[in-house]
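REQUEST FORM: STRUCTURE PREDICTION
Request ID: SP-0412
Submitted by: Lab K.M.
Chain count: 1
Length (residues): 120
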Amino acid sequence: QVHLVESGGGLVQAGGSLRLSCVVSGRTFNLFRMGWFRQAPGKEREFVSAIAWTGDSTYYADSVKGRFTISRDDARGAVYLQMNSLKPEDTADYYCAARQSQWVSRYEYWGQGTQVIVSS
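STATUS: Completed
RESULT:
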């Protein structure tokens, strides 16, 4: 089992910044990739960003490229999402997720989510 706990959400004005944190614990030795997803009210969940559990590979949705930065702190067992130049359309519940398989594109473990509200 892998446990994920997110934090760092909140209310921010457009143009502001927030940093989301995801603490990862449990059987992490065979993780392949960590991701951030979001779900806005009335919309489907969408991919935001991902980072390899080992190595430096990172991935971003076009909508956040250049504004968001994903990073990993191995010593703390944490993954972060630095969000800058926030827009009202970034308002959503943000979820941290863990993927085990390199071959199956499915995230098996999910956190409880943290809410981000960007006011205009």
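NOTES: The CA atoms of residues 55 and 72 lie 10 Å apart.
Reviewed by: T.R.
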